[in-house]
Amino acid sequence: MVAFRGPKVWLWRWRRNPLKRRVDRLESWVVLVAWLLTVGGGLVAGVLCADSVESGLARQREEWRPVQARLVEDAPEPGAGGGAGADKVWAKVRWAAPDGSAREGQARVDPAAVMGTAVTVWTDTRGRLVTEPAGEAQARLRAGLVGGLAGIFVAAVPFAGGRLVRGRLERRRMDQWDEAWERTAPLWERKIW
Any stretches that span the bilayer, and where are they (predicted)? Predict the structure, then answer.
């Protein structure tokens, strides 16, 4: 047999009830504030973080430039340090920075390329080696993933805090019920001689 629960009542935590205690009203506000902060904070943090990542990647696409570099040494064979089945291997290259100075560094190149071969490397505004910037679609994907993770982590804080506060309120309510029962139970006991 299933007990009748009656119709579902919206916003039941804020309805007037003579049996509602102060701790019940406090719990209803804790739940409301925790959910508002969880949803609102998570959304705001996620959107702001995604926008920041996407604008940073767009700035990289604008500032970073491909530069022609030359191999300073012969590139190793694929099995010698590049890993089995590697498409590219690391080799030392030289290029000219925007100020005209010569720079050297390690870059990924085709395996077995000979010294002096021209390769394309990406540099920032100071002439330092960087990776190829993310395309627009890849930037949107990265921004969405980072924004989603940031939103989840930010939303977890008020959610966990609300759960902790509700747990403490629940323990307090149970302690109050135990105290009330300690006062009431002796009145209900029957002495049988």
Answer: 143-165
Dihedral sign computed on CA atoms, order 112, 114, 117, 123: positive
Q: Which residue has the tokens 């291997």?
A: 89
Task: Give the CA angle between residues 122, 56, 91 to the nearest 5°.
Answer: 20
pLDDT tens digits, 7-18:
666 666 667 777
- Is pTM, for the whole model, over 0.90? no
Long-range contact pairs involving 54-58 (C-beta distance under 8 Å, separation at least 24): 54/139, 54/140, 54/142, 54/143, 57/133, 57/134, 57/139, 57/142, 57/143, 58/139
Can you give the pLDDT at residue 17? 75
Of 145, 141, 136, 147, nearest to 49 by C-alpha is 147
Write the pLDDT tens digit of every residue in 43-73: 999 999 999 999 999 999 999 999 999 999 8
Are the C-beta atoms of 154 and 41 separated by less than 8 Å?
yes
What sign has the CA pseudo-torsion 154, 157, 163, 165? negative
